[in-house]
């Protein structure tokens, strides 16, 4: 089992994790060996531009959401160089990247599974 699979299992179980993924497919958003913080995601709140830890066609990636198909409960996952990995169901989206080298990803904390509702009361 690879490092991303191990982290995906920890996030699936509810943990917020920090790790250093390798590779160049997400440059300049995430450089190889930069520390990322990933928390369990609420996939219904995801939107294009979010960085997620997800399984696509049997492989776990830390890649971008590039499209959302809410009626079919799935998101499209791609790297930051134009390669589309494919569509994956909400049940295979494990976490959302909250920070890269301690720099917060805008809006990501509101998409954590079980996060407090930030909407103003009616």
Number of helices: 1
Number of separate strands: 8
β-strand percent reads: 35-45%
Q: What is the overall shape?
A: globular
Assembly category: single chain
The run of helices and strands is HEEEEEEEE
- Return the structural class: mainly beta
Provide the helix percentage.
Answer: under 10%
| Low-pLDDT segments, ≥5 res | none
| Rg over CA atoms | 13 Å
Short description:
The protein is mostly beta strands. It has one helix at about 5-10; strands spanning about 15-20, 35-40, 50-55, 60-70, 75-80, 85-90, 95-100, 105. Strands 1, 2, 3, 4, 5, 6, 7 and 8 form an 8-stranded antiparallel β-sheet that branches.
What are its keywords?
about 10% helix; 8-stranded antiparallel sheet; globular; about 120 residues; mainly beta
Description:
This protein is mainly beta and 122 residues long. It is built from 1 helix and 8 strands; from the N terminus they run αββββββββ. Strands 1, 2, 3, 4, 5, 6, 7 and 8 form an 8-stranded antiparallel beta sheet that branches. The chain starts with a helix and ends in an 18-residue tail after the last strand. The mean pLDDT is 94.
How are the secondary structure elements laid out?
Layout: H1 3-12, E1 17-19, E2 36-40, E3 51-56, E4 59-69, E5 74-78, E6 84-89, E7 93-100, E8 103-104
Antiparallel strand pairs: 1-2, 2-7, 3-4, 3-7, 4-5, 5-6, 7-8
């Amino acid at each position: 089992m690879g490092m991303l699979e191990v982290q995906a299992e920890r996030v699936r179980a509810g943990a917020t994790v920090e790790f250093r993924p390798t590779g160049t497919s997400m440059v300049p958003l995430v450089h190889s060996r930069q520390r990322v913080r990933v928390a369990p995601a609420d996939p219904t709140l995801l939107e294009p531009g979010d960085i997620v830890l997800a399984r696509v066609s049997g492989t776990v990636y830390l890649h971008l959401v590039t499209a959302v198909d809410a009626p079919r409960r799935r998101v499209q996952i791609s790297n930051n160089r134009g390669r589309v990995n494919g569509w994956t169901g909400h049940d295979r989206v494990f976490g959302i990247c909250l920070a890269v080298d301690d720099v917060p990803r805008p809006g990501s904390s509101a998409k954590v599974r079980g996060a407090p509702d930030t909407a103003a009361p009616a």
